[in-house]
């Protein structure tokens, strides 16, 4: 029973079937395939953005790095949260591809508008000697399982626009956020001032495809050149397209995220009834952060649960509080959730 990350999950049958079907016959290479034309059209329809430029890459790191490098110059700085994936988990790929530096805003997963304004204002005080202001990047849902509301996104993009800075959204878990907010894809992005989105697919069921969407196609050609130069233009591109097409068709992406969020909400409700479990932050989608005593983790692991903990659980006293993360992916059945909760309820009883 692994609840470590949503990329531990399998691929839904619809996507495997689409890959098998795409394997028939011949298709032009390098993104000229017929499936990609459909993907582009579907994305434009879903986002109510007929002019949007739509691309596919294989990893979220590529999506973020190539999107951000297209939005900035090497002498600029990218404003982001200190726990953002682009800062903590991409081995400096955004800096490598953009040549820019990252400026960390505040100390939270969600960027606070006041702190953002302060951070932006503090740059460009040293003329030619210092970094110039560049794009703002936010993560939806955040790395701590929070969701920016539409008004929070609007507030951030309004500040960025005051300084004429573009805003990027790392939507590795875009679908989970959309389901949580119950709004449209357009509302969560360009209608709230977002310029470019990394549209996640892998964490929500795909084998390995992420979209990059530019609502203003002005930089589309530059992105294409950067993608090729970064070795991320796939020659047998149809196999990327086929996955994304199956994901978008019949709203499979929404169905998968709804399933994940629903199962997560049952897990959250169950955990609330276990006295020794404290939520680090109130979960809003399918990422759950809790603090529990070390002995509970030890017992849960003994019974076969797997998940990440943020500090050692061995060699510490039983009651040492240890933070952990549970991720509920699209493939979780309700009986998996029941089993997880039963193990946790038993783990909470110290004497057993
Ligand atoms: C998983 C994830 C990504 C993408 O990571 P890759 O391993 O490069 O696919 C990007 N942003 C966030 C917030 C993520 O959780």
Written overview of the protein:
- The structure is a single chain.
- The chain is an alpha/beta fold and 352 residues long.
- It has two domains: 12-252, Aspartate Aminotransferase, domain 2 (3-Layer(aba) Sandwich), CATH 3.40.640; 254-347, Aspartate Aminotransferase, domain 1, CATH 3.90.1150.
- Helix content is 41%, strand content 15%.
- It has helices at residues 13-22, 34-46, 60-71, 85-88, 93-98, 113-122, 150-162, 174-181, 185-188, 220-229, 238-248, 252-272, 294-302, 334-348, and strands spanning 53-57, 76-80, 101-104, 132-139, 167-171, 196-199, 210-214, 278-279, 287-293, 308-309, 321-327.
- The chain has a seven-stranded mixed sheet with strand order 1-7-6-5-4-2-3, sandwiched between helices.
- Helix 7 (150-162) links the parallel strand 4 (132-139) and strand 5 (167-171).
- Helix 2 runs parallel beside helix 11, helix 3 (60-71) packs across helix 10 and helix 13 (294-302) packs across helix 14 (334-348).
- The longest helix is centred in the C-terminal third of the chain and has 21 residues, at 252-272.
- Residues 59-61, 64, 85, 139, 143, 170, 172, 202-203 line the site of pyridoxal-5'-phosphate.
Terminal-residue CA separation: 21 Å
Kindly report the oligomeric state of this protein.
single chain
Spatial order of strands in the largest sheet: 1-7-6-5-4-2-3
- What is the number of domains? 2
CATH topology (level 3) name of the largest domain: Aspartate Aminotransferase, domain 2
Given helix and strand content, the structural type is: alpha/beta
Helix content: 40-55%
Largest sheet: 7 strands, mixed
- Count of alpha and pi helical runs: 14
Strand content: 15-25%
Helices and strands, in order, run as HHEHEHHEHEHEHHEEHHHEEHEEH
Task: Quote the average pLDDT.
Answer: 97
């Amino acid at each position: 029973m692994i609840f470590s990350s949503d990329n531990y999950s399998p691929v839904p049958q619809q996507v495997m079937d689409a890959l098998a079907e795409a394997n028939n016959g011949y298709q032009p290479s390098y993104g000229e395939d017929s499936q990609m034309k459909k993907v582009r059209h579907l994305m434009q329809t879903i986002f109510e953005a007929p002019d949007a430029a739509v691309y596919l890459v294989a990893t979220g790191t590529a999506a973020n790095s190539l999107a951000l490098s297209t939005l900035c110059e090497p002498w600029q700085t990218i404003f982001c949260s200190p726990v953002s994936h682009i800062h903590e988990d991409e081995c400096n790929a955004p800096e490598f591809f953009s040549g820019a530096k990252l400026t960390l805003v505040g100390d939270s997963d969600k960027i606070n508008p006041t702190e953002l304004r302060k951070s932006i204002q503090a740059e460009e005080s040293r003329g030619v000697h210092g970094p110039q202001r560049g794009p703002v990047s936010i993560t939806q849902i955040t790395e701590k399982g929070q969701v920016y509301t539409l008004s929070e996104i609007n507030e951030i993009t309004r500040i960025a626009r005051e300084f004429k800075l573009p805003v990027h959204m790392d939507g590795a878990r875009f679908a989970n956020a959309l389901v949580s907010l119950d709004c449209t894809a357009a509302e969560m992005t360009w209608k709230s001032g977002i310029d470019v989105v990394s549209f996640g697919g892998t964490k929500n069921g795909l084998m390995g495809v992420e979209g990059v969407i530019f609502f203003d196609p002005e930089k589309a050609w530059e992105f294409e050149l950067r993608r090729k130069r970064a070795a991320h233009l796939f020659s047998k591109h149809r196999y990327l397209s086929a996955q994304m097409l199956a994901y978008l068709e019949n709203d499979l992406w929404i169905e998968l995220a709804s399933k994940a969020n629903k199962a997560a909400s049952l897990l959250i409700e169950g955990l609330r009834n276990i006295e020794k479990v404290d939520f680090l932050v109130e979960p809003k989608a399918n990422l759950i952060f809790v603090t529990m005593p070390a002995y509970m983790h030890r017992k849960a692991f003994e019974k076969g649960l797997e998940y990440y903990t943020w500090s050692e659980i061995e060699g510490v006293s039983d009651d040492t509080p240890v933070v952990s993360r549970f991720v509920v992916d699209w493939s979780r059945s309700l009986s998996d959730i029941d089993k997880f909760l039963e193990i946790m309820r038993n783990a909470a009883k110290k004497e057993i």
